[in-house]
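User: I've been trying to design a sequence by hand for this structure and keep getting stuck. Would you show me what you'd pick, starting by listing the structure so we're on the same page?

Assistant: Good idea, let's start from the same input. This is the structure you sent:
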């Protein structure tokens, strides 16, 4: 299979952000790299990102994993540079990100649409000059009480959530692979009911 997919794990660089809800994209990208036997490193076309290349299985589609190191608001720059370099079609760009409007333990897939206030998606849309890329939306739910959503996404998962987090990061990686292998509609039918 000759298709190349650019899978973007959205997050913020630095140890202080590693366990944040906003960093689930990085968590999923790390897991996918492990599955593909790929190692993250710097790329000449996107020095402000970590990039890993591999395949999800022998003979499967090519996987280019990206973790932008620009902080969320500027994530699109490295993504657009790599999409041009690898000649990846917008519908083969998959953004994995946290989603306030989806409950924790739920993962939703969509092609195109708005950014829902997510600065990483907004940056990607601007630099790719299209909304027609795939989003794997990892539910984190709404903040409790009157907590500011900006503070909530930059806080770590709760003790209770962490007990289930690894399972759902694994599931999100499965979703990405399903989109690559079978397309968005198939993945929606397979995973939205779950």
């Amino acid at each position: 299979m000759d298709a190349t997919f650019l899978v973007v794990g959205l997050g913020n660089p630095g140890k202080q952000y590693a366990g944040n809800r906003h960093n689930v994209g990085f968590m999923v990208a790390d897991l996918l790299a492990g599955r593909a036997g790929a190692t993250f490193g710097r790329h000449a076309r996107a020095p402000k990102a970590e990039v890993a290349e591999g395949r999800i299985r022998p003979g499967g589609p090519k996987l280019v994993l990206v973790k932008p190191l620009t902080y969320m608001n500027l994530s699109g720059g490295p993504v657009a540079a790599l999409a041009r370099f690898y000649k990846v079609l917008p519908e083969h760009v998959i953004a994995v990100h946290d989603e306030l409007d989806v409950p924790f333990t739920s993962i939703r897939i969509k092609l195109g649409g708005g950014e829902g206030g997510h600065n990483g998606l907004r940056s990607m849309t601007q630099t790719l000059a299209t909304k027609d890329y795939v989003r794997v939306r990892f539910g984190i739910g709404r903040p409790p009480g009157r907590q500011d959503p900006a503070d909530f996404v930059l806080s770590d998962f709760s003790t209770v959530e962490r007990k289930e987090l690894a399972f759902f990061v694994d599931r999100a990686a499965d979703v990405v692979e399903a989109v690559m292998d079978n397309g968005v509609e198939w993945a929606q039918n397979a995973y939205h009911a779950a």
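That's my pick for every position. To get oriented when you compare it with your attempt: The chain has a mean pLDDT of 95. The longest strand covers residues 46-55.
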